[in-house]
Amino acid sequence: MESILIICLVGLMSGFTTVLFGFGGGFIMVPFIYHFLWFSDPSLHQESMLIAIATSSSIMMMSSVFATYKNYQLKIMNVSMIFPLFYYIGIGALVGSFLSTIILDQILKLLFVLYLIVTIIDCLFRKGFIEIQPLNQKTNHSSFLKVFS
């Protein structure tokens, strides 16, 4: 019962950070699933990182497909600009999937940490990511609310 409560809380935290920041699910889910598998089933030690990455990837894929579909329905996305990316995302996913089966678990962990570091540095130094809005300027969340209705 305690494990189910922890899994639910981590899932809520992952969803919250993803919606709040636009990313974060993988940052939370990959380390959580990795450690959860590592401590709960010793027979999965070798595969725990691969399972964690695959689980996070499938969650991201499902939420991305849903959000894209909802934005398409609301006509708030530039289809001619977005859909060509699907080919490159698909190719990257195939190459990444193949490489993840031949790269050692320790190297996958190192690559994940490097990915986190690069992402954090990008967020800190990219113009516009950390920007203070004037107090009198309101953010329009109506399109966000439409996507989830």
List keywords for this structure.
single chain; mainly alpha; membrane; TSUP/Inactive_protease-like
Gyration radius, to the nearest Å?
18 Å
Order of helices and strands: HHHHHH
Please report the number of helical segments.
Answer: 6
Gross geometry: globular
Estimate the helix proportion, in percent. Answer: over 70%
Query: Largest sheet, if any?
Result: none
Rounded mean pLDDT is 80
Low-confidence spans: pLDDT under 50, at least 5 residues? none
Distance between the termini: 32 Å
Oligomeric state of the chains? single chain
> Strand tally, please?
0
Short description:
The chain crosses the membrane at residues 7-37, 49-69, 81-104, 110-129. By secondary structure, this protein is mainly α. The chain has helices at 2-21, 25-40, 48-73, 79-102, 105-125, 142-147.
Describe the protein's architecture and organization:
This protein is mainly α. The protein is built from six helices and no strands. The protein is 76% helix and 0% strand. Helix 1 runs antiparallel to helix 2. The longest helix is centred in the middle third of the chain and has 26 residues. It starts with a helix and ends with a helix. The model has no long low-confidence stretch (mean pLDDT 80). This is Probable membrane transporter protein. It is a multi-pass membrane protein. Its main location: membrane.
